[in-house]
């Protein structure tokens, strides 16, 4: 579950509201044992995601969250952080890395930076933004890193449509 008040940027709506070098800190997702088990049962049924003893036998400090769940949590946090952004689509993520395990009780926050922003030549009413994000737990230990690309509408004043 997330603390929806942590790092919310409702004023960011259009492509032009993002700029290279801009940074954002958002989210406070509490990872629960129940959510970890539920996700693992459906999407990533590895022993270290499903069984505490198996995880310990494999060298972990306890049950660990699926990296896919951690990435999904980042996606939800990013959507909650930019509730009014006129996103069109994400053509993909790059360079996803699992740096450290995430455990039940960890609180996940994203530290993100805009690395690239440009108007799309093939879609002039839209711009492309690349956001590099590091998910950290409550003690600021980085646990995952990824780069996400978003296509966003340009405002009507800057050549976009009014969708």
What can you see in these coordinates?
It is built from four helices and five strands. By secondary structure, the chain is an alpha+beta fold. It has a five-stranded antiparallel sheet, covered by helices on one side. The protein has helices spanning 33-43, 47-50, 52-57, 67-81, and strands at 23-30, 87-98, 107-119, 126-136, 142-153. It is elongated and about 60 Å long. The protein has a single domain (15-158), classed as Thiol Ester Dehydrase, Chain A.
Give the name of the CATH superfamily.
Hotdog Thioesterase
Strand content: 25-35%
Task: Count every beta strand, where a strand is a DSSP E run of 2 or more residues.
Answer: 5
What is the 3D shape? elongated
Number of domains: 1
Q: Which sheet architecture does the biggest sheet show? A: 5 strands, antiparallel
Q: State the separation between the terminal residues, measured CA to CA.
A: 31 Å
Poorly predicted regions are: 1-5
The total count of helices amounts to 4
Task: Evaluate the radius of gyration.
Answer: 18 Å
> SSE order, as H and E?
EHHHHEEEE
Mean pLDDT: 93
Might you state the CATH topology name?
Thiol Ester Dehydrase, Chain A
- Helix-and-strand structural type: alpha+beta
CATH class: Alpha Beta
Strand order of the largest sheet: 1-3-4-5-2
Oligomer: single chain
